[in-house]
Amino acid sequence: MSVSFLLGPRDLRAPLAWRHGRPISALAWLADVEAVAAKLPSQGPAVNLCGDRYRFSVGLAAALLRGHASLLPPDAREDTLARVCAEQPAAFALVDPGEPYGAGLAQRVAVDADGARTPLAAMPDWAAIALDRHAASLLTSGSTGVPQPHAKTWGTLVGDVAAAVPRLCQLLGLSSLGGLTLVATVPVQHSYGLESSALLAMLGGPAFEAGRPFYPADIVQALESVPRPRALVTTPFHLKTLLQSGLAVPPVDMVLSATAPLSPQLAAQAERATGGVMVEIYGSTETGQVATRCPVRSEVWEVMGDIRVQAETGPDGAERFVFSGDFIPAPTPMADLLELLGDGRFRLLGRANDLVHVAGRRTSLGHLDFHLNSIPGVEDGAFWLPDDVADGVVRPVAFVVAPSVDAATVIAGLRERVEPVFVPRRVVHVQALPRVGTGKLTRRELREFALAQLAADGSPVRLSHRVPEDHPAFAGHFPGQPLLPGALLLAELLEAMRGVPSLRARLGDAPMLAAAKFLAPVRPGADLVFDLQPETGAAAGVRFEVRMGDTVAASGRWLPGEGARTASEAGGSQ
Length: 574
Prior knowledge:
14 helices; 6-stranded mixed beta sheet; single chain; 26% helix; disordered C terminus; Rossmann fold; alpha/beta; GMP Synthetase, Chain A, domain 3; 11-stranded mixed beta sheet; Thiol Ester Dehydrase, Chain A; 3 domains
């Protein structure tokens, strides 16, 4: 049976981690793993919710030692954990001492590990883990916001790190990563945060800082608390916030970035501010990290180790790009458009499911976001495509966090960077975008946010809805001529409006129907458009039209009911 130890080759007396400026040796870490493993239930899996990176790593290793896989959810919300554990009645939570999350699970185990136990004398035999053991399931939120499990064996995780270490050594000009310390702003439950902090330290030789600094001052403090050489593991969102904070960033030998494309301007600024090399990592939860580039020097990506990429035709006849390699369990297509340059080198053109077609032209939302965030004064920004189409053309909307520049300046900046058809007619200033811990924006979160923002300032909202062919109401209304009763049409409309937070705040949980006219029958399979126009004034309601193509099927007006706020209150809540 092939095995690999919990820790890769390293000086076991040297630091594996730093907590609050105090080093913890690998031998002390092993003592904590042994003690925590003895407390774990006999049945699993473990749901590792530890925010402290050191305790997370101890919990991950302790679960492996007991034969349990670790489930790594995108967040610790009660509804997320309920979905994750729906088919896992024996699942237990690993938590930081004193933290309340995971209360809905059958059992919670506090990972009481801080490196204070008596260190072991040497690497124990029990630290050898079978390579084929199920080690972890990453439950990523992805772009849709629905957690999807991605199982990883211990061999897959070991191979992932083994491919990355030589590349990082090359870029740092070091013979090994021993002595390097990693400071990460990324949640360790995320694939990138797992690979590039806890696992990279455990298997690749460096140490890691135990916290998860988020705010610029916390990042600066964490960097100052560990010795050089050091690397900052972060995202474009966190990096941009840090560099715009005005704080002096301590010298950093390497900055690693992933989860979204990094603009050349931000990459160059990061190298100037830190003095280190800026490195981007490309990969996915399915494949792990597979390629790197240094964006200040080149836009071209280069695969790591023996990883291979090739183009092939998918089941739908479209071209797709497939990555394979020793540690990738099976050839895996990426959801991206690439330009292959040979010898494992490629350019990234955008997300395959992110394409935007306007007036016969094509681009990607990622490409538009990239240029939006390159405009001086734009601290954060994202494009959104509404459901409505005017004159046969969809009109993008840009949401920006840009307190120092106005909409006209943003539009002028985009005109210099993108084709005219993609320049938005509307730029909406917001205080913040609803990003998750990794800095990503899911499609679902962005859509809900966009609808709420547009409704809050009195802008019309357009929602799409398809009437099911097998809607039960058609059985009795009417044989041979099925139609959807008006009351049920209004119920469908009301349910759709409840999905828009600002409309729900405006109307409350029980809106009052002030008027309704039914002008055309709604048949099975009808594609409906709900046009909603928030009103202004003290008793502001929402006027509506239900359309089927050019036909108005119904119109009317809702008034605020119980639990509603005034229009100004609803707008101010966003």
